[in-house]
Write the structure tokens for this entry.
Amino acid sequence: MRILVTGGAGFIGSNFIRHMLAMHPEHTITNLDKLTYAGNLENLKDVEDLPSYAFIKADICNNTIIDSLEFDAIINFAAESHVDRSILDSSPFLQTNVIGTQSLLEAAKKRSCRMLHVSTDEVYGSIDWGFFTEESPIMPNSPYAASKASSDLLVRAYHETFGMDLTITRCSNNYGPYQFPEKLIPLVISSALQGRQIPVYGDGRNVRDWIHVNDHCRAIDLVFHRARAGDIYNIGGRNEQMNIDIIKSLLAMIAEKTGTDKETLFGLITFVKDRPGHDRRYAIDPTKIETTLGWEHETDFDKGLSETVDWYLANRAWWSRIISGEYLNYYTSQYGEGFGR
Ligand code: NAD
Ligand code: DAU
């Protein structure tokens, strides 16, 4: 199958492409990515020369470019993904997450091809007790979550109206290698290694349900190959953690691994004003994907977190180039000013 993966230069998309190239040599992957601040082709350095992989620099809203491509299926990761940025300016979120998804749906409709849309548990809003199931009401609270919920509704509507082969996945918070250091876990690790303050929003007791990115990628692979048209699958690791507990675990691991004084690192923790509309708790019920597709999460959280710290320690050059802005030059140094190869 010729698969168009959109947003493949970001955190989850790049891990997914690496997974697919390793596990499914029968497919070819074209990675279409606009390379926003979050897109980084250095994430795919080790696979960029494989004959079954190609990159195209383009916007998912650009129908002319998408219409010029040949593919049999779309897996859509492309999105503006950071809640704090959506609070500062929601426009790019609506443009990419809503209009961009509609543009991909139109491209899929023209060629009667399948599309898997990668969504998020944030569409369900916040839950005080119990768990989000696929039947939970859609009640997004941030502009980011509202834009993702809108894209999910469009996918649903295109399936209902045109009978298209469309599926949606809704995953909880991911962590692992190549995550952009604006998100909580890589932000804490990179700040601690630079001796910078670590901002904790509100009382730090908000709960997120963490899953290793590799487990998410395996789940998407399964849904892509096995789900029925119109299916929605929640994906989560049954792993609720309070932010402050994760921050302390990370700092304790970093102290031990680097021989830094633990109290000095704990002294970087700085409680700051809360995120507006900050969701209190996310908790995913992954029973449907476990029972119908036989998926289960494999990565133990403490082990996964420790390996993630090791990865950021071993790949200081990767995140330092992001913090300095040097990573933005990688595309032109590899490909020149054209649009991919
Ligand atoms: P990311 O911000 O790391 O990567 C997003 C990628 O999309 C980047 O490479 C960026 O350049 C690209 N992109 C943005 N706008 C584009 C456009 N208009 N056209 C083409 N490419 C564009 O995001 P991520 O954390 O890897 O998330 C990927 C997807 O998974 C998103 O749809 C997100 O909503 C969803 N998701 C993320 C998480 C998480 O914890 N990170 C959890 C559940 C779902
Ligand atoms: O649940 C899935 C979602 O997880 C994805 O859809 C989003 O794309 C992804 O960004 C993530 O959203 P969150 O808002 O949960 O992730 P973030 O890393 O921004 O924040 C995690 C928690 O940590 C949240 O409660 C806010 C808090 N936080 C975050 C940052 C960046 C802090 O306390 N301080 C910080 O500096």
About this structure: Residues 249 and 299 are 17 Å apart (CA to CA).
